[in-house]
């Protein structure tokens, strides 16, 4: 299966990706996670990307394509992949089409998670992530049993640098300006499945699986 998870910041892409990758045994490729890992290792790419991410802006297409294009060629992507947060611009979507054409493959589905702006602000300002295992928690929707401590591994929880109200507001604006056109792009190709992301995470997952089983 070759799947894209589209949806505004905080719509639940990462939460659902963890479940989908287990169900279909395909690698979860999150450009946001790749950038954050580069930032923590202070690589050249990380230092450059941080300038944009901290402001809630998109990392330029050229740099983003550089980190993704090589990832598709890795062995674990032969049987498919799940893209989370990529593509985010028409330039990236067209580049992805070209890469897929080169390897003679095509997409099965583009899942579009829809969530209202006020829910998103609450979700993102409430998000807490484990610094050790990456597990996600939320002060409003999914609290850890012990404050600031991961239920799964005991690691310390942190708040993402781009999860403050000001940056989130900017990320939502950028999404509407630059990523929203992809809904039409994939809609015209007949690949789009729109799912109500406001539901409880388990129900969102059920709806996604229903959509994916039809295009498997
Ligand atoms: P990225 O890391 O991709 O962030 P994002 O798209 O803004 O989305 P998030 O990861 O914040 O949210 P999500 O949709 O994964 O939701 P989650 O499941 O965590 O990108 C970060 C930055 O990197 C970008 O701003 C950009 O600068 C750069 N970047 C990345 N890719 C790029 C690209 N292709 N091109 C250029 N730049 C790029 O859920 C959020 C919270 O809500 C969690 O706390 C979760 O527990 C909770 N939650 C989830 N689902 C539910 C539910 N159903 N009910 C209640 N709570 C829920
Ligand atoms: Mg995410």
Shape: globular
CATH architecture type? 3-Layer(aba) Sandwich
The CATH topology corresponds to Rossmann fold
Tell me the number of structural domains.
Answer: 1
Element-by-element helix/strand order:
EHEHHHEHEHEEEHHEH
Question: Can you summarize the main beta sheet?
Answer: 5 strands, parallel
Query: In DSSP terms, counting alpha (H) and pi (I) runs of 4 or more, how many helices?
Result: 9
What is the SS-derived class?
A: alpha/beta
Low-confidence stretches: none
Q: Provide the residue-averaged pLDDT.
A: 95
CATH-level-4 superfamily name: P-loop containing nucleotide triphosphate hydrolases
Q: Can you describe what's shown?
A:
The chain has 216 residues and is of the alpha/beta class. The chain has a single domain, classed as Rossmann fold, CATH 3.40.50. The protein has 9 helices and 8 strands. The strands form 2 sheets. Strands 2-3-1-4-8 form a 5-stranded parallel beta sheet, sandwiched between helices. Helix 1 crosses helix 9 and helix 2 (31-40) packs across helix 3. The chain is globular and about 50 Å long.
Can you give keywords for this protein?
216 residues, alpha/beta, Rossmann fold, five-stranded parallel sheet, 9 helices, binds BIS(adenosine)-5'-pentaphosphate, binds magnesium ion
